[in-house]
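Q: Sequence in, structure out?
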Amino acid sequence: MAKKIAFKTLGCRLNQYETDTLISQFKKGGFEVVDYKEEADVYVVNTCTVTNKSDHKSRNTIQQGKRIKPDAVMLVTGCMANHRKDQLNANEQITYVVDNDRKSSIFSIVDAHFKGELVNPDEYEKDVFGFAVGEETIHTRSLLKIQDGCDNFCSFCIIPFVRGRAISRPVQEVLENARELIRIGYKELVITGVNIGRYDYEGILFEDLIEQILALPGDFRVRISSMEPEGFGEKLYSMLNHPKLSPHLHICLQSGSEAILLKMRRMYTARSFSEMVQSIRSVRPDMNLTTDIIVGFPGETDEDFQASLDRVKEMGFTHVHTFKYSKRDGTRAARAGDQVPEKVKSARSEEMRLLSEENKRAYRSSFIGKQQRLIIEKSGNAYSLGLGEHFVPVKVMGKKLPANSWQLVQIVGIESGDDPALIGELL
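A: Exactly. Output:
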């Protein structure tokens, strides 16, 4: 009987990409992949440690798996496995702790375990790009990893310590991976990494790589995942209207206050960020722009927070992923004395959320009467759900359409609620 394995992924798209490829590898290896809430022989928790809340979720997830089947193999990987490695190794509930550098070896580690071999994860080779193409995953889109690590060392961020310094994947490896994904039948490739705008492999920069991916043959689209405001040269601006490039960008602002950006040790000013957004919109006025904002950073005043609200209004971000500042051991901001009370952080977070929802509804409503080319994500009898080229969800009512298929629709309405999908009719 096949061994059962369950995965739980927390945190960023890069973690999701790595889990997807592991799922495919275990399926090919004869394992049955089940939901994390079900009984399994192996539980793999791909953790996040970007905030204290992330650590708490990771610990709860580990305990959840052990409650379901106490004698199961519990393997913990991801950023918490780097940040809290000694603590996790001391946890008797955990069988193996595998750091990010060796995550691609998880199948080999589990396989060796069930063959009765003595396993020490730290003896496996380090390879942050050693993930096979995810042919059989739980998603209709595929992430395409081009880069790992970060050299920026922002004062609030622990990522350079748990993901390591920036490293770019060889160009030919990226292109071969992309070709294989297109051959398998993926309609959307999502470019991902830790700081993708800093991609630089032997003089080939981020915009050069995107140009080469877009030039590949096939009917597919490319979406650029979360990025820092870096990598925007004239070539990238010139590609914003390319028919294969999704008009959606998630660019991390973090704060609209010049004083707070300086304390964060960000590599730009609010003014230069605003000028970049104006340049993007001059080329592509309908660009769907989303962002990250940290509220309650040490020393953030009411005036600083208002500056963030003003920038979000001015730039028209259609979604704001709002983080309440969380102390991370070893970072400069954790040593700051002017910490903002939790109650104030919560109030500011709620105010930012409401503004984000207002922007989102206004932007999505602008598509009524226009056309969108969808990739169908979910198919049901009541409706099929797809994503338009602007990364906006669209429901086609009363139609059971094939998943991962292209569909052209006319937008005829919008739902109510906080995260409204558009309503489309087939053309």
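The longest strand covers residues 371-379.
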